[in-house]
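Question: Send over one sample?
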Amino acid sequence: MAAKLLPDAETLRNILDYNPETGKLFWRQRDVSLFNETASRTREHACAHWNARWAGAEAFTASQTTGHKFGSLLGASYLAHRVIWKIVTGRDPEVIDHIDGDPGNNKWANLRSVSQLINARNIPQQKNCRHDHPGVYYTGCKFRPWRAAIGHSGKIRRLGAFASKEAAVAARVAAEAECGYIIRK
């Protein structure tokens, strides 16, 4: 599924400030031209009310169940890390990877634009996994009961059978480095 197109970079920069050290977005003071007149408010009144309430406040503070920050902008909902990427680079990202695995950490040094394939390599291990390292599993065979495997180029690559769990983990870690996975602690 294609990601939702973001507003142009100039519009985003006029509406939001980004602090690359903290990874946070803040609402900028808005110009009266961004507001419409209603039956109950003039454009000037709506602008003054909005700026008094929101200008300088942190933006995109809601969190998805995955931990990704998001917010509403110009009538649509967007993910914070995608907005940040466009503010800084001026381009829509393909997929944003949070290098440290924390989807709430939007510091610039923690973000990179990658393909979906690269991003999928760095998905953290699921909590219901029976073993403490992805791609390593116990078969119960008598002589070499531990196996290791890794997904690469759309295929499962079997790394071998091992006498100990430690040897299987070492083979998986070596394959992760070879295949370009990010090693997360």
Q: What stands out?
A: The mean pLDDT is 86. The helical segments are 9-15, 43-54, 80-89, 116-121, 165-179. The first strand starts at residue 16 and ends at 19.
